[in-house]
Write a structure and sequence with these properties.
With 320 residues, the chain is mainly α. Helices cover 53% and strands 9% of the residues. The protein has eleven helices and eight strands. Strands 1-2-8 form a three-stranded mixed β-sheet. It has a three-stranded antiparallel β-sheet with strand order 6-3-7. Strands 4-5 form a two-stranded antiparallel sheet.
Length: 320
């Protein structure tokens, strides 16, 4: 990928470049300027292009024991313990997943649309990004640049949820600034965010219901039987809120097979979002200031406790 990237300037100079492609490249540059204003480390990220064809850029494997929520961890240099392993070849990812299943784990393979090398390399624009809506593209880029700016080694849930918050909030602010507060695209994005929050709250309750069962320390066979009943009830519960979604369709949940790895993969990006939101409120909705707080907490031994302190009125702290 590093050797196969093409500089944007070279592509933009081609007379055959499609108008949509040129427009997306220009939008990405505007997003990068906005990211700079927030203090995110842009470096030379997204100044090159890499064509992945019709495939994801990679595939991630994750796993968990079926009787409890406990991510299977891989140890890597620099980044520490990570609850997923990436593959550029799908067959190798499937081979790893199946090996974990054979050992008794719940395991999944999921496609990856983008990634961050944490500033070690220049991350390219991937061909799949050219099909994103403006808010989705801003969300994705701000999410990945957050990883390049602040990273707590061994704290994947913290890192991913932090990036989720910055991407979601920052993309709405970007649209308002770039296209104006009255743009229909902003309204659509807000509706999608509301749907995401509704499903997120539902999933938090789903994981909590299963976590309560797992905490009882029942025999494994009993847990595996009873967790099916809990998950079946959650599908019934979901049917009761289906009509509340305005834009997004989460009906695929009804076809999910119970899998702790899948549920942990979702929770990984939505852990304690309220703590990040509390810091945002405490910083008077100054996203640049919020990112500085997040970066400070990323460097602490306990980033979650630092976040709690930063979001509490009584926890006044001079970080800088």
């Amino acid at each position: 990928m590093i050797f196969g990237r093409t500089p944007l300037a070279e592509i933009a100079a081609r007379p055959t470049i499609a108008d949509k492609t040129r427009s997306q490249f220009e939008l990405i540059q505007s997003i990068l300027h906005y990211a700079d204003s927030l203090g995110l480390k842009t470096g030379d990220n997204y100044t090159t292009f890499y064509d992945t064809g019709d495939n994801p850029v990679s595939w991630n494997v994750s796993a968990s024991p079926p009787e409890r929520f406990e991510p299977y961890l891989w140890e890597f240099p620099f980044v520490g313990a990570v609850p997923y392993k990436g593959f550029f070849q799908l067959d190798l990812a499937i081979e790893q997943r199946d090996a974990l299943i054979a050992k008794g784990y719940d395991a999944i393979v999921r496609p990856v649309s983008a990634y961050s090398t944490l500033g070690f390399f220049s991350d390219p624009i991937l061909s799949g990004m050219l099909n994103y809506q403006p808010d989705q593209l801003a969300d994705l880029i701000l999410h990945e640049l957050t990883h390049a700016t602040a990273y707590a080694a061994g704290e994947t849930d913290f890192n991913e949820t932090m990036a989720t918050f910055v991407g979601r909030q920052g993309s709405l602010l970007f649209l308002s600034r770039h296209l104006g507060p009255d743009t229909p695209l902003l309204q659509l994005a807000q509706q999608r965010r509301a749907d995401s929050a509704l499903f997120g709250n539902f999933m938090v309750a789903t994981v909590a219901s299963l976590d309560s069962l797992y905490s009882l320390e029942l025999p494994r066979a009993v847990v595996l039987r009873q967790r099916m009943a809990v998950f079946a009830q959650r599908k019934v519960d979901f049917a009761l809120i289906r009509g509340q979604f305005s834009r997004s369709n989460y009906d695929a949940f009804l076809d999910w097979e119970l899998n702790n790895a899948r549920l942990l993969s979702y929770r990984r990006y939505h852990s304690n979002l309220d703590l990040f939101a509390a810091v945002y409120r405490h910083q008077d909705a100054d996203l640049a200031g919020v990112i500085r707080v997040f970066a400070h907490c990323s460097d602490q031994e306990n980033p979650w406790q630092c976040l709690r302190n930063a979001g509490s009125v009584s926890g006044e702290t001079d970080f800088f």
